[in-house]
Structures are given as C-alpha cells and as structure tokens.
Amino acid sequence: MYNANMPPETKIPNNQDIDLALKEFEAKSTGQETGKVNEGPKTPETFDTSDIDQALKEFEIKSRTEQKRETPETSKDSDLPKMVRFVIKFSGGLIQDQKQAEYVLLGVVILIIIVILIIVLKYVI
Fold it and tell me: Where are the domains of the chain?
C-alpha cells in the first residue's frame, strides 16, 4: 500500500565491480575470507560462542564498575526538598549544602517581593 508508487527493483546488467563488492560483503558478513567457498548460514552446532561469552564477561565487568560509582550528593540526600536540590544542582558548584541553598532561595523570595512592591506602588500611586 505504501510503496504502490515505487518502481520495481532495478538490476544493473554486466556490472562486475558491484557483483564483486557484493560477494566480498557477503563473505565478510559471514566471517569468511573472499577466497573461500560459502558454507551457508551457521547453525548452532557450528557457531563459535567464545566471542559472545567474552563480550558477556566484559559487559558484566563494566556493569559492576558502573554500579559501584558514587552517586551525586543531591540524589543521596533524598530527604532534601526538591527546590533545595534544584538550587544545588544548577548552581555550578557554588552552592554545596542545604543551608546555602536555603539562603539563596530566601534571597530570591525577598527580591521577588521587592519587585512586586515596586510595580504595585508605581501603578497604584
């Protein structure tokens, strides 16, 4: 339905370079050299699992080391309020503990109140 307007598969006649490249690709994708005869697809009896086993061992080692990595300080302290964690996270390292973050938030609130009072008093009076 979607490919109703697609032209039929185009075949290029007598193009030896493409045929040779396709044969080389097929040989490499099955793990064989280009001079060997294609033995067909590998069956479970002939398939070598040593590469898979080695990759699995490497993955297990890597995942263990990643699990042992120290988590960031803000995610450890789940008892911190979300706003405090937000300020610590996005401060770029300037704010390092809860007390400093709370002072920053208090300063922001005071600044917002002053701006609102200035706007209200300017238009009311």
Answer: 73-124
